Request: fold
Amino acid sequence: MKIIEADTIIEIPFFDLDPMNVVWHGNYVKYTEIARCNLLNKIGYNYDDMRADGVMYPVAKMEMKFIKSAAFGQKILVKAVLDEIEPSLNMHYEIKDFDTKEVLFKAKTMQIGVEFATRKSIYEAPEKLKKGIECF
Reply:
């Protein structure tokens, strides 16, 4: 499969901080979700398209490695890379400081395809997703 990736720039807002004045660890999941949505939009197969196809891709597994904390006002670059679409949607992510390029966080997600109506797993990617990747 060809390399499909998307970069997303985020400036850390005040409300993402914890009492220690660094980004609360749960917000890194939010940042990966923002980057994943950006990547899916670039492919032309976003969550609205999934719904229209009667499928969903809930996260089944996530691996995270926290390397260094981000802070208020810091600009970060969140890279999402699509690794595989069958039998599951697999991506990996890297969050870096925008200016220094220092790596702050790494993650991987595995999302299982599920038919919306039956809640049964599907192992073949929808045609529109395959076509979006082809045309990317």
